[in-house]
Amino acid sequence: MKRTFAGLLVVAVVALVGCDSKDHAGGPGATNPTGKQPLYGEADNTFDLTATSTDVKQGETKDVSIGIKRGTNFQEDVTLKFADVPQGLTLDLASPVIKHGETETKVTLKAAADASLGDFAVKAIGHPTKGGDASHEFKITVTKDPEVAAKAKRDEYVRLMQKQLNELDAKYAELKASAAKAEGQAKIGMDKKVELANVKRDAAAKKLDDLKEAAPDRWEKVKEGVGSAFSDLKKIFE
């Protein structure tokens, strides 16, 4: 049986579209039970979602757009949400609803400093006022930012050393209270120890403040001075 060129073209289009089941049209006109897109363009009273794949670094924030393509007679509002979002990544919509006269909405993409690295397929889902949902899958690639990683390590070390300084401050307060109660030669010795502890404590606190302000690419060098100052302070209470 002979096949016309037009018939072969339809078969080819069906085969091409049938291979991609990730994106689905929505709306009252999307009557296919599987929710697949129309074979050509936007069918009457349906809509499709669009989004561009994007890259984001750990610790970075950037704006992306989610668009809508409306078929003839589709004028519904569409409420958006996202699925399959990887750990450490958030997508905050400027408005969760694309109104009937709008063509897109902005999304703030935020990657935490420890966000999972790699390529991720995120799904945008559009729920219309009437009819079935539409979905569109787009790629987000999360890459490592050396400066952000270094800053995270620095800040974690600062938190650790601040905790130690608070504990040493408690020991200093105990030493000062004991010195106030002491008498005679014991008091003279303890007063000197309190004075020395105060000097060492101020030095350690100064080094810690310097570390908090240190650039991510040089904090490791400043860290050495912090460790040395804290060691000197700890010896006072041994």
CATH class of the largest domain: Mainly Beta
- How can the largest sheet be summarized? 5 strands, mixed
Fraction of residues in H or I helices: 40-55%
End-to-end distance, in Å?
98 Å
Order of neighbouring strands in the sheet with most strands: 2-9-8-4-6
How are the SSEs placed, and which strands pair?
Elements: H1 5-18, E1 47-51, E2 54-57, E3 61-70, E4 78-83, E5 89-93, E6 97-98, E7 104-111, E8 118-128, E9 134-143, H2 146-181, H3 184-213, H4 219-236
Helix pairs in contact: 2-3, 2-4, 3-4
Provide a descriptive summary of the structure in words.
The chain is of the alpha+beta class and 238 residues long. The chain folds into two domains: 8-13 and 20-143, Sandwich (Immunoglobulin-like), CATH 2.60.40; 147-236. It contains four helices and nine strands. It has helices at residues 5-18, 146-181, 184-213, 219-236, and strands at residues 47-51, 54-57, 61-70, 78-83, 89-93, 97-98, 104-111, 118-128, 134-143. Strands 2-9-8-4-6 form a five-stranded mixed beta sheet, with no helix packed on it. A four-stranded antiparallel beta sheet has the order 1-3-7-5, with no helix packed on it. It is rod-shaped.
